[in-house]
Amino acid sequence: MDTDTGRDTADGPGAMARPAPPGTPPTLPVTTRLALPIDAPAIAAVHQASRQATMPYLPPQRRTHEEVTRWIREIVLPQCHTFVATRGPELLGYAAVQGDLLDQLYLRPDVRRAGIGTLLLAEARRHRPDGLSLHVFQLNADARAFYAHHGFRVVAIHDGRANMENLPELTLRWTPAPEPLFPRGTP
Predict the structure, then answer these.
(1) pTM greater than the 0.85 cutoff
(2) Where is this region: Disordered (predicted)?
(3) CATH number, domain with residue 89
(4) Are 169 and 3 in contact (CB under 8 A)?
(5) Which of 5, 52, 166, 186 has the most CB atoms less than 10 A away?
(6) Which domain holds residue 35?
(7) Around Cβ 86, how many Cβ atoms within 10 Å?
(8) DSSP secondary structure string for all residues of 68-93
């Protein structure tokens, strides 16, 4: 398990976009797509900025931007189904799914609580409709609240011996609700 990545930073529950003041030109919509190798430097920048802003309890980052970019390009993109959220040319966040593990979900700190984490999580769920698991540091209260709001439940508690930071973490799981059974003849 590689938790040196600082897993599971996301926007908060009930996130809503704030309306622009009158007279403000309209902004481009946020869209999602599969990540491309050319996105690696921007994904690395989001990863590093998010980790630094949202997890101050972690030790200082030891890896350079170039090293994180190489990790994204050579490890994350080839091994994970990775989605990015963009607004025009700006990369706002990313989510990486490996098997049924949501291994990464990071947002630029300046776009948190605008529904972008929810959008990326929805892409991950579409990719893994039978369920997702993830690991989150116990200290990451914002991420824990975000995932609880989206139906994830604690399935295991770990003391931190298995991650590079030696911080206690939780394993969370989302399993879709069963489809309701309607009586025959019900429209």
Answers:
(1) no
(2) 1-29
(3) 3.40.630.30
(4) yes
(5) 5
(6) 3-14+28-174
(7) 19
(8) HHHHIIIIIHHHSEEEEEEETTEEEE
